[in-house]
């Protein structure tokens, strides 16, 4: 029986990053992965392919609608969807191959198959052909990720009823594209297909789109998406579906008034959330505790109730974000090797990769009020920024929320082109317990869009210098 210091079940962002860090720290590591490639949902059918399509579709949309404003006149613009999809596939292949290279470089054993915990120190691996083997380990990390939530009346067939996986693989442009669930996945995939020519309708149960995000930012985003032709229907509950003439017909009703209606589309993307993938792992064999939503229960060191078994990423409580999973995977590796490992959940950023993007870290204004914080808020628009004007990207603003007494930054929210990239300096500032004055007194190159961050920081103290 082969023995390891650490066996990781799952090769997504939390699994492969934690495995690499553990190997760097001198541990003998194996990773069990059921899929044919490494990288998990994020790399294969999530974050990376969706960003490739978002980027390509944005180029296409800009060429059709914005290039003439720059004096670039193009006629007879055509879309080759097959080429666009091939580019996406190649990017994924390159990156999954890169992880495989890192495994070899760090002498990590990749065991292809399903992992099942037998005891606190043994794991069974079942390959695709049913062959079983058992390995021994001192520690185990559960990094099995999550799967889309399927509605009982909207079962995925990935042809007409799509999960995010199916929405990334369509070989035609639907005339009418319905999105059930106005979360991040729904907005991103809705954006892709709207840019490519689909009439997109988003049906959301809540009375606001992405209610966990800063609502001033969401007002800007939804306004922009409406200009692109996306229709939003909030406070609506989808209750049933049927096939009608090769199309999908949905029944829905108002949450408040119960008024019923129907809508038809060529395809329906169900993006009502994801759930932890923890079934079939043998958790019951060792008595690992799970919560009412099937997530593994852990302590502050990401340990389960079995001290040498850890869990990270979408399999546990918290935002289902790749970078959160990565930090947890690294923290587990460092805790096993050194006795220390830490994740600061107050600085986990969240991003919607639409156009404009929405990027946030820390508390929103609403959350600050709920928690009783006395705050000052600095807000500054991109319309007053020279670089944004030169780029033609003046939509949006930066908002910085600081404690009224200490000036410590409690939250930051950006809606703009490349907001995901701009947010980084505010994440670092918060990680170091920085104040709005710290950011305001730091150089920002001119002309850059990052100057809006400085102006927002100055605006916390009502001393912005532009606009």
Anisotropy-based shape: globular
Class computed from helices, strands and strand pairing: alpha/beta
Instruction: Give the distance, in angstroms, between the N- and C-terminal Cα atoms.
Output: 69 Å
Which whole number gives the mean pLDDT? 97
Strand segment count: 22
Radius of gyration (CA) equals: 24 Å
Question: How would a textbook summarize the main sheet?
Answer: 7 strands, mixed
Q: Give the fraction of residues assigned to helices.
A: 25-40%
Separate helix tally: 15
Strand content: 25-35%
Low-pLDDT segments, ≥5 res: none
Notes on the structure:
There is one protein chain. The chain has helices at 13-24, 40-45, 47-65, 81-105, 164-167, 184-195, 215-227, 283-286, 322-338, 365-370, 386-391, 419-422, 424-431, 436-440, 451-460; strands at 3-9, 29-33, 109-112, 114-119, 122-126, 132-142, 146-148, 161-162, 176-180, 199-203, 231-233, 236-244, 247-254, 260-265, 267-270, 274-276, 309-311, 350-352, 357-362, 375-381, 397-403, 409-416. The protein has 15 helices and 22 strands. With 467 residues, the protein is α/β, with parallel strands linked by helices. The strands form 5 sheets. Strands 1, 2, 3, 4, 5, 6 and 17 form a 7-stranded mixed β-sheet that branches. The chain has a 5-stranded parallel β-sheet with strand order 8-15-9-10-11. A 5-stranded antiparallel β-sheet has the order 18-19-22-21-20. Helix 1 runs parallel beside helix 9 (322-338). A hairpin with a 5-residue loop joins strand 13 (247-254) and strand 14 (260-265).
